[in-house]
UniProtKB/TrEMBL annotation:
<keyword id="KW-0853">WD repeat</keyword>
<feature type="region of interest" description="Disordered">
    <location>
        <begin position="24"/>
        <end position="54"/>
    </location>
</feature>
<keyword id="KW-0963">Cytoplasm</keyword>
<dbReference type="GO" id="GO:0005868">
    <property type="term" value="C:cytoplasmic dynein complex"/>
</dbReference>
<dbReference type="GO" id="GO:0045503">
    <property type="term" value="F:dynein light chain binding"/>
</dbReference>
<dbReference type="GO" id="GO:0010970">
    <property type="term" value="P:transport along microtubule"/>
</dbReference>
<dbReference type="GO" id="GO:0045504">
    <property type="term" value="F:dynein heavy chain binding"/>
</dbReference>
<feature type="compositionally biased region" description="Polar residues">
    <location>
        <begin position="32"/>
        <end position="44"/>
    </location>
</feature>
<dbReference type="InterPro" id="IPR036322">
    <property type="entry name" value="WD40_repeat_dom_sf"/>
</dbReference>
<dbReference type="InterPro" id="IPR015943">
    <property type="entry name" value="WD40/YVTN_repeat-like_dom_sf"/>
</dbReference>
<protein>
    <submittedName>
        <fullName>Cytoplasmic dynein 1 intermediate chain 2</fullName>
    </submittedName>
</protein>
<dbReference type="InterPro" id="IPR050687">
    <property type="entry name" value="Dynein_IC"/>
</dbReference>
<keyword id="KW-0677">Repeat</keyword>
Amino acid sequence: MSISSTDRQQLLEQKRQRLQELKQKRLQQLQASSPLPTKETTPSFFEPQTKKSVDVSTQTQSDVSVIDTPKVIVEKEVSRYDKAVQTIDLVSQEVVEAPELEQSVKFVDKQEISETELNEALTKSIKLINKLHVTNTVVLENGKLAHITGDTTSGIEKWTTFDAKQGIVSIDSRSDSLAVAFTDDATIYNASTATIFPEYYLNSLSQIEVLKFDKFNDGRIIGGLKNGGICIWELNDAEISLMPVLSTPLYTSVMNNKSVTLHLSKIVFLTQLLIDGNVCIVSISQDGVLNIWSTNLLAEPKASFKVFANRESNIDGLQIASAVYIGSDEVVGTSFISDVIISGNDGKLYNATGELIHEDPSISMIHSLAKIGNYVVTSHSDWTIKLWTKDQIELFRDIPVPYIVEDIVLRPGKSASLQFATVGHSNLTNGKLVVDIWDLKRKLYSSIATVMETDDEITSIAFNDVGDKLVVVAKNSIIIYKVDNSLKESKASDFDKGI
């Protein structure tokens, strides 16, 4: 069936109209989605075209060109519009930021960095952080800690409390510093203000049993270890965590020297003396070995003694519990060892040569030993404090107390030459631990002040070097009291007037 020329012309006209409708609809959709107002224009392909009578093949090619040409034009407009919106800000941002990045990156020559200055700056920063963050102290519960004031004491004031959060083995105090030995290491705290903060951390290969400030050098700390070693740490502002600068050997060729005996058990006593004009350390271990060391060289003892070497009686199982030195700080030779008083686990007192110097008829275990004035003071398990004089073997005074005294600490200072603090554990006070202050000049048979009572275990007490602060370690907390010279008992006694 053949199609006439008229029918073909009508069919093409219908297709053209349909195409125009689709293009108008497409243009309306694009204008509706555009955020900016657009000027409506009629593309050239919407203009009416003159009808021509041409061949079929020619007309078909013209139709194809009419269909494709608008697509290219519309896509090009949309593409340009979208790119303009998306890329203008990004391009300008890259141009602005590129110079700033180049200016901010500056490389410093490695040789220009001073390691010493860097360490000092880091140390100061850490100290400042410690000082800023350790601002609140932990106050013990009222039910466990009672500060006794008013009725029994005057001149005692609770100054600050600090929670160490770990077990404490030994403490030593100065006016502005506090040395604390824990079960694993030690810390030096700044105690110049009520806000205590750590300044130095001391590391050790063995547990520190005795920790002391150097009497002749403020920048040194001396420690006696559980394995029998002696260590010296030097404090400096460039470091916070410190290892010992000097330490004694444990197993070396020195062991072959018969005149030298090293400590093989824990250190129970440390002190410093000027021997022949040289600063020396005197140490005693639990197994009865006394050694003298130079503070400049700990490789080998200057002198070594076995305390009970000359005793003929059986000394099996005899161990040294504590010791105290009652002589002068400046000596010549080694004869001073006779002024070192030792308490054994047999309840007797010896000097460092092994000679028995004091013996109580009623033998009881000795809990603590201290020098108070010209007296040697001991506390015993029979609820007594005993006073001994240097030239008298027999007991000088026997003082009954209402508790077992676990520790005795001398209060330094000329005005307090016969004052000391005690820690007592009594069943008469509901099992509480009591810290009292005594003054043998005022009262002999009772204390002049009660500092505190607590349910917590008190492991150690210590006065600072001037005697105006008393440090008490209750469980894991450190409590510091101010003690001034106005300390006195509230009630006078005509019966007990002291020594």
